[in-house]
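Following up on my earlier thread - several people asked me to post the actual chain instead of describing it. Fair enough. Here it is, all 288 residues.
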Amino acid sequence: MSEHDLLTDRFEEHRGHLRAVAHQILGSAAEADDAVQEAWLRLNRSYSSEVENLRGWLTTVVARVALTMLRSRTARSEDPLDAPVPHLAEHGDDPEHQAILSDSVGLALLVVLDTLPPNERLAFVLHDMFAVPFEEIAPIVDRTPAAARKLASRARRRVQGAAPSPDTDLGRQREIVRAFLAASRRGDFNALLEILHPDAVLRADRAATVMGASGLVHGASAIADTLSGRAVHARLALIDGVPGALWTQADRPRVAFTFTTSAGRITEIDLIANSEHLRTLELVLLNE
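Reply from S.P.:
Thanks for posting it. Predicted structure:
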């Protein structure tokens, strides 16, 4: 098999993921296919065997192409070319794309996404829907990681709309996190379901996925199944002053768990294992 054929096969392994990313950013299946095709052309022009993470590289390329298309459309005040929600059968047997469509794409969501500025939409889609770390989103939108985080946060608030506001009572948050850790350590699936919001989301950065974590998990049941019995060594902690959890090894922080709670239940969990990111956090272990 020629080098070109090998590269084609590797690209095809990621086509469904790339199409899903582009479609969420653009809201148009036709434009998404154009963005994926452009990524293929750029791969052929500039591929280097030194690229270790081809999926990540291609995701960045597709995101950049889609952002340029989105900005151009916004400047011309154009609507997406296609209807906002394609039929699930449109992409054949691609299970990843169908799963993302069924879990994340809805007319209401895409209508809200269409109201967001391009940078906010891209930051929200890449981080909240595909668990891309802000360190990788930042150069795409020409911002710092902290600024990229703020873009996604603003978009998230608009997407959530009338959803309950996050809890601000730190004492209450501490009790919720303590209860979560206890249930996870016991492997108490039902207790975890009680603590997690039905639409909760678990995200892990790339370093955490290398350690065995799932990159993105939707729904209380799936998260409870993922984390049941997994927090044995995690300890209650303050993460930048907010109750969370920390797993250390040889007195060094390895994974930080940050939580968002609303109405007494956990709505979001982020696993941070990137060593550079961990160094930017204020981490204080607490007595339980």
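The two ends are 59 Å apart (CA to CA). That should answer part of your original question.
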